[in-house]
Design brief:
The complex is a heterodimer of chains A (458) and B (203).
Chain A: E1 2-8, H1 13-19, H2 25-33, E2 35-40, H3 47-56, H4 60-63, E3 69-71, E4 79-81, H5 92-98, E5 103-106, E6 119-122, E7 135-136, H6 140-148, H7 164-188, E8 193-198, H8 200-208, H9 228-244, E9 251-256, E10 260-263, E11 266-269, H10 270-276, E12 304-307, E13 312-316, H11 332-344, E14 357-359, H12 361-364, E15 375-378, E16 384-387, E17 396-397, E18 407-410, E19 412-418, E20 426-427, E21 431-432, H13 436-443
Parallel strand pairs in A: 1-8, 1-9, 2-20, 2-21, 5-6, 5-8, 11-16
Antiparallel strand pairs in A: 2-19, 3-4, 6-7, 9-19, 10-18, 11-17, 12-13, 13-15, 14-15
Helix pairs in contact in A: 7-8, 7-9, 8-9
Chain B: E1 6-11, H1 18-31, E2 36-40, H2 41-44, H3 56-75, E3 79-83, H4 89-99, E4 102-108, H5 111-117, H6 122-127, E5 149-152, H7 158-171, H8 179-182, H9 187-199
Parallel strand pairs in B: 1-3, 1-4, 2-3, 4-5
The chains are: A alpha/beta (458), B alpha/beta (203).
Amino acid sequence: MKVFVIGLDCAEPSLVFDRWRDDLPNLRRLMEGGTYGELTSSIPAITVPAWASMLSSRDPGQLGFYGFRNRADFSYERMTIATANKVKADRVWDVLSRAGKRVIVHGVPQTYPVKPVNGLMISSFLTPSTYSTFTYPASLKDEIAQVVGGEYLFDVPNFRTEDKAQLLDQIYRLADQHHTLIKHLMTGRRWDFFMHVDMGVDRIHHGFWKYFDERHPLYEPGNPFEDAIHDYYVHIDAQIGERLALLDDDTAVLVVSDHGGQPMMGGICFNEWLKQEGYLTLEYQPEGIVPLEKCEVDWSRTVAWGSGGYYARLFLNVKGREPEGVIAPSDYESVRDELAAKIAAIADPEGNNIGSVAYKPEEIYREVNNIAPDLIVYFGGLRWRSVGSLGLNRIHTFENDIGPDDANHAQQGLYIYYHPRRPGAGRGPRRHLMDVAPTVLDLLDVPIPPGMQGRVIQ
Amino acid sequence: MEQKGVTVWFTGMSGAGKTALALRLEEELRRRGLKVERLDGDIVRQSLTRDLGFSKEDRDKNIERVTFVAKLLTRNGVAVLCSFISPYREVRARARKEIGNFVEVYCYAPLETLIERDVKGLYKKALAGEIENFTGISDPYEEPENPEVMIDSSKETVEESLAKVLRKLEELGYVPPSPAEEEVYTADEEAEIEARLAALGYL
């Protein structure tokens, strides 16, 4: 038995299962012959930590990272990037390598710097450049350059652009280049486990969602990019078809996404809100729109600060913990509860509650390692993003502080599980992304190590 | 930065993984250029305390002598890794008080797992009544109430446990961060990656 995993970052279940099902013949074939359903993401539902959580079957608290950047210590400014070195738990290919299985891992987030595996590894979009050692073994780099006939792409360059035609072109370039390489590796090597992650789906969602979704506040019917996302899904489906044709009939296929996507309704200026509510004090008002790191914060009069992104992180300024902490440790819980309650009451400009939730790390994770945010916040079920910059002087914004962005993440990603010899169950129950690693190990007859949280998808 | 001495005290029942973890920690601390000394129950009992048995009194004496040695090393800037069953809370508390820079690592695994593993064949003998005062079978093990680190060797790999201990030692300032981790990106690369992440909307 072999296992072929197709990772589609941000692939949205409602688009694949329902809206465009009939236009995606290859994914439909896998659905009809297999079992498929929603795949609950980690909290936060974001590339880092979601893929690592999926492939180690451990939650972000156990892994000890809560996003791309995490606090390095309790100072106000030191952050570190969650590279592969921060992943201390085994991921499925580590377990498989030790069991003597041959693995090929391509483009999975948090694989730079690359680590030795029993097979091949090509790192992902957190790689500085093609000058870096981004393959294991290192010699694979030259072969890749030959196969793709030019510079290897880790991601879509210049993502934040208003030139949408060019952006679309880049997204296709990335997908096509990776597809060429995948086919080359699939056929040229012996492997038991093959996994690739396509970032294009995520990039096209963020860049083009408003053009097709009637629910999006900026949707305009008949616009030239109305079919951009649809056509990209069709393109990816055709590529998947070509790959499936290369598989023998002893290969199980898993199509997975780390989270879903949905229209972005707007942004909540989190630090602006904290400032207005009296939790954050600046030495002086910045001119223009300025990220918090560039503002002069009066820490002696600041209770909490937040960060931007698809979800928000809230940090408390605690006496004895932060350099100029103001919250007495005995008041920590009451301040946290007060803020969580106020966050839950945040309304849209019309005064309707948007339904925000603030999670306490210790309540959602089995362990809390390294420095977690004091609260992890979803504004309006992730339909609103968190804007960290100050200077907008209002709570709501419909223009991002960093340029156009149409989509946000959704908690439910997708899975399609096809086994060549077992009948599928069609639309199946919701599963958790931590179920993926034990399922792969089970298929390959490798014992599931203790500590994996997920359960095997049968 | 001058090395700050510390005693890392691994406590837990026989077979729970104290020695394995201490050995990996020793290796890692040496790799980071620190002075390390390891005091292990099985070794110490062949030299420093070979005159002692396993009665409560002898066990207390065993730990008392080890504590004395660990204290001397710790105050001279050494990272001392002590792995002893050290089943009694009071004795461990005394060691902590004596030594000062003290990090307690509770190595746990469920009794069934320990009996199943039985690396040294001791549980079999103890269950058959061939060993007296055997911790966990015929003598109590008093679990630490507030260890700095707790590991469960039935659920985590040695590498995961090691990462937890290292994190704690780094946090407490006894161990500088791993040079390997710091060197993933150059300053320019890091700035470039951060700019990319911001452009992608992640930050």
